[in-house]
Amino acid sequence: MIPALADLPHPARIRIVGLSGSGKSTLGRMLGQRLGIAHLEEDSFHFTGTNFTLKDKAEVTAEALRFTAEHSVTGFVTDGFWKDVHDVFLPQINVVIELKYPLYIILWRLFWRTFWRCWTGEKLWGTEIQETFWTAVQVWDYDNIFGHMLRQWYASKYQGDEKGKLRETWLREGWPKNEMIDDDSVWKGDRYLIRFNHPSELEDWLNV
To answer: Is residue 108 domain-resident?
Structure first.
């Protein structure tokens, strides 16, 4: 049974997952405000420069550790499911929210998000990184946002959904503690995997 928002563990340490365009960051900001906890987009500490250049893994890990150390007592919510920070987040979190919407909804949302970012010249995550109409239409490019999203959707639907299996394993067994995480920061209580298959389900949950 899905716990109500008010019944989530305290402190709530939440990780929101889903395909690009599903609404992870929007939900993350909303939950941060509703629950009074810090919100962080995992993308925000992975990229640097002006062209989506990936940061060094050690730097990424250090930033993730700083964030959790600062907010583990009061709670936090992140959006994303970057593999390179699993060992930081998965031992500490107690809730995973998965937005598993139909492809047509995600495509529509991603189209309008990308269009708006390109039209306004929005700079992402406080960096100089911007999306452009040219990069948006280069669907043949491996890093194109639409191509990336469709590959992830195909893998989850037709190639075994390894990320989904990993989340199920986390729900059943937790995540092995490692030397980076203090024992007091490791979550030892109940864990929840909450999946929404349509935006209306999420809206109903938020409005309870």
So the answer is: no
